[in-house]
Amino acid sequence: MQFKTDHKRVFGLDIFRAVAIILVVLVHGAYILNDTILEGFPYFSMIDGVDLFFVLSGFLIGGILLKEINKEAPFRHRQLFRFWKRRWFRTLPNYYLILLLNYLVVKHGVINEDITQFNYTFIVFLQNFSTPFHGFFWESWSLSIEEWFYIFTPLLILLSIRFFSAKTSFLVSTLIMILFPALYRLNIYDASIDPYFWDVIFRKTVLTRLDSIGYGLLAAWTHYYYIRIWKKYRIAAFISGTLFMLFVIHFNPGHQSIYSQVLYFSFVPISAGLLLPLAESIRNANGFFAWSIEHISKISYSMYLINLALVAEVMRDNFTPRGGTDGIIKYVLYWIIVIGVSTILYKYYEKPMMDLRDRKISFRSLTSYIKKR
Asked: Of 109, 139, 238, 361, which one's alpha carbon is 20 to 30 angstroms from that of 245?
């Protein structure tokens, strides 16, 4: 059996994305290993996988926007709407499907969450815009940040490109996306905050975290305009990023510090962004390992959406691990279910929806397309 990879993809970025989702799934399933010989696996502190997703997203979307604004045709509303259409066909169908499933499993008592927390804000990604939310579809916090990034960034470029060159307008927009959240975090700094509210206010709201994606934009700008420097210093950048990331992981002065509430959320994406030049230089790979990494990368969005509430919490509340061998078996089962269901979801729902992005959509054409599938 041959395991062929798609040579149109950048394998190093697939590694980046695969590592990000593996870190997320590891954290959400860690409780299953309690009271087993593998309790505490993987036995060392890790970077937050969501931060890797943020930086990679900024880098990829930044690259798309840079190509768009550097075309001969000016970047105007038509290009903006096309960008939004492509992004939303990529993200919204899966999100709304999993949102509905979350509502159903909570409403019917399959998992123990608070159905009263569900409201219209989850439809328009306002559940954590400036204030925290709790008790329902926890993992949607990062998706709100992504969606508002898709809105704000091209709008800033559209406004600034009327006054500056493409290169300058993109940089100005990027700096706004980086500086505003950092200043906002500084403004709401709270010396008396506890770990829970640090998590839901500083880590999980839109206005405090857009800069995590903004650093990916800065990487994309560097890659586009300074490709020689990008390639020349990729090894040095990777080593620097790795050392910086190790510092960020292990330096913890407490949640009440300015470092933890302000600087930490800048340092994490900077360290991750420094890994991108080397990752981007790894263009292709073959074999089972490469195929596996590419596959995990492709299904990572579906894995992110289902792994917590629809798998980990369903197991927690209905098939509680009892430690020992039972815990290990259920941990393996947890990974099999996450990867298996995500593969099906990607193949039969997520990918077909993405394929609609470049079509001229009407109700009739959409109905016809679905019937053909």
From this structure: 139
Residue position matching structure tokens 């815009």: 129
CA distance 206 to 125: 9
Q: What is the mean pLDDT of the chain?
A: 94
- pLDDT digit string (tens) for 139-182? 999 999 999 999 999 999 999 999 999 999 999 999 999 999 99
Cα–Cα distance between 286 and 124 in angstroms, integer?
41
The residue ranges of every structural domain in the chain are 11-372
Instruction: Read off the pTM.
Output: 0.94
